[in-house]
Write a structure and sequence with these properties.
This protein is an alpha+beta fold and 81 residues long. The protein is built from 2 helices and 3 strands; from the N terminus they run αββαβ. The longest helix is centred in the C-terminal third of the chain and has 15 residues.
Length: 81
Amino acid sequence: MLMKKILNVSEMKQVRGGAVPSDYCNPGDVLFTCATGYNSGFITKGVACGRNASEVAARIREERIWESPNLEYEGINVKCW
């Protein structure tokens, strides 16, 4: 039986309507647009699949830190919509 999750207040605030279903994503995932900002002022933009924006942003943040361990966690700001 498929169960739907009821969103809490915090999750509802993250809903922007920007996520779209995509053939590039696994079933149940949607495609989010994300921007990553660094302390230097450099900003990158891309897309990633996931179930919600906060999950996708956390995965991107973790990946960036793994790629460049010298980056401070607080020095990376990821927003997905």
